[in-house]
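tokens incoming
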């Protein structure tokens, strides 16, 4: 039964990522409250949050440490402009992120796409300040996704997001993805990565004079269907960018903060990029915040009194104290919980729960990295993602496949019963969809 809240939402809210008419048959899920990894709808039913509320929630909903930090900050300072002012949370957060990444000079925004915009603008402006304004183009990986604002769409290679807006963007070039699923007989994931790196080298050799930056999602291209690849590609990319004087931008918006097993994915390649984009898990899933970190070399190219050389990009809520305080509390939890080590043990338990799904005859390319799992499903259902999502809800689980790729990216707080529920419900929802597929095939054959 459609809840009153869902009906009101359909009339008043323009929901993202779904054609609105579809909600007539499948109304949005009306969530009333959340606790830990569980969501509760307005009828009291609960659902395991298997995608961390779009990859943002790290330590469960309503974590007491983050709540306490926000309450304390609200008593002190809710917001102040960052133009000509500063405050303790933004300074401390910038210092801590610099210590964790080796990059400083934090520039703040509100979301991942805005972080991409900052990195792209800063890179092109850097080359302009150095007297090379022709270096204003960008290159990314095939299937890459970096946000949906106009600048971010220019480096996004997911057709459904950018095709309608192509006239508004200056589309960037793409080079082959190091997707490990592209392995030829006898090839390893590293072989695929090296082959893709060779293609990148050919492209940079021909186009480096007009190229400002290469932008990549390190180790996992999430919106492309949880594409996973070997870290050797990042090492090769770093070397090539150095050789051809091109910035390396790592988009850690989804892969950062422990998702791939290390605090930041690029650290598994032992490289230092020129720019890091962070968001999503930065505040533990509580408030919108993003940040771009860069090198002293980039910062010095803007340093001075000339406004034309300065980086003037800003937002009204840039460096909001509440959001920065939530981010600091989230970083506290990594240390207090020894989260990266704890996640290793949890990941092993989750992988064991997913063993029957991995072995399912309709699953292709079962893969796992850190706290991310993905499976390509062999199905004829053109609307598999929608059918699976609603089947999973019937089994008390929130999952949203990307096309025919089923994936799971849960919070870092699952206990044994939640893990068992996750494995059972994910498999049961797949079986439901395959039964629907079989029924549709029978009806088609009968007609």
């Amino acid at each position: 039964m459609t809840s009153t809240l869902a009906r009101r939402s359909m009339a008043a809210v323009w929901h993202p990522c779904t054609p609105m008419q579809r909600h007539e048959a499948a109304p949005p899920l009306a969530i009333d409250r959340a606790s830990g990894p569980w969501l509760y709808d307005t009828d009291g039913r609960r659902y395991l949050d298997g995608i961390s509320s779009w990859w943002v929630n790290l330590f469960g909903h309503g974590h007491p440490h983050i709540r306490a930090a926000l309450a304390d900050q609200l008593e002190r300072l809710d917001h102040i402009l960052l133009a000509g002012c500063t405050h303790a949370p933004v300074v401390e957060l910038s210092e801590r992120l610099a210590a964790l990444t080796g990059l400083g000079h934090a520039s703040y925004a509100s979301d991942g796409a805005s972080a991409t915009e900052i990195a792209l603008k800063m890179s092109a402006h850097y080359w302009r300040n150095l007297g090379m304004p022709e270096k204003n183009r960008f290159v990314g990986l095939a299937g890459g996704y970096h946000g949906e604002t106009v600048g971010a769409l220019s480096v996004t290679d997911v057709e459904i997001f950018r095709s309608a807006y192509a006239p508004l963007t200056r589309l960037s070039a793409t080079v082959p993805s190091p997707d490990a699923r592209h392995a030829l007989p006898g090839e390893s994931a590293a072989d695929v990565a090296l082959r893709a790196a060779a293609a990148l080298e050919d492209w940079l050799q021909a186009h480096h004079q007009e190229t400002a930056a290469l932008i990549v999602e390190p180790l996992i291209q999430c919106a492309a269907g949880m594409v996973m690849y070997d870290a050797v590609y990042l090492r090769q990319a770093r070397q090539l960018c150095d050789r051809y004087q091109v910035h390396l931008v790592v988009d850690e918006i989804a892969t950062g903060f422990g998702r791939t097993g290390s605090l930041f994915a690029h650290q598994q390649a032992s490289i230092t990029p020129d720019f890091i984009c962070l968001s999503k898990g930065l505040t533990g899933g509580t408030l919108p915040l993003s940040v771009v970190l860069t090198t002293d070399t980039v910062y010095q190219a803007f340093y001075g009194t000339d406004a034309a050389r300065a980086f003037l990009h800003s937002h009204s809520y840039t460096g909001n104290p509440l959001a920065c305080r939530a981010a600091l509390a989230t970083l506290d939890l990594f240390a207090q919980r020894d989260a990266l080590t704890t996640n290793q043990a949890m990941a092993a338990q989750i992988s064991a729960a997913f063993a029957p799904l991995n072995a399912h005859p309709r699953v292709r390319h079962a893969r796992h990295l850190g706290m991310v799992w993905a499976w390509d499903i062999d199905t004829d259902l053109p609307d598999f993602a929608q059918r699976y999502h609603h089947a999973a809800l019937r089994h008390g689980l929130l999952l949203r496949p990307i096309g025919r790729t089923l994936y799971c990216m849960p919070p870092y707080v699952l206990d044994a019963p939640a893990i068992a529920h996750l494995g059972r419900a994910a498999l049961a929802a797949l079986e439901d969809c395959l039964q629907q597929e079989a029924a549709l095939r029978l009806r088609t054959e009968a007609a």
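note: The chain has a mean pLDDT of 96.
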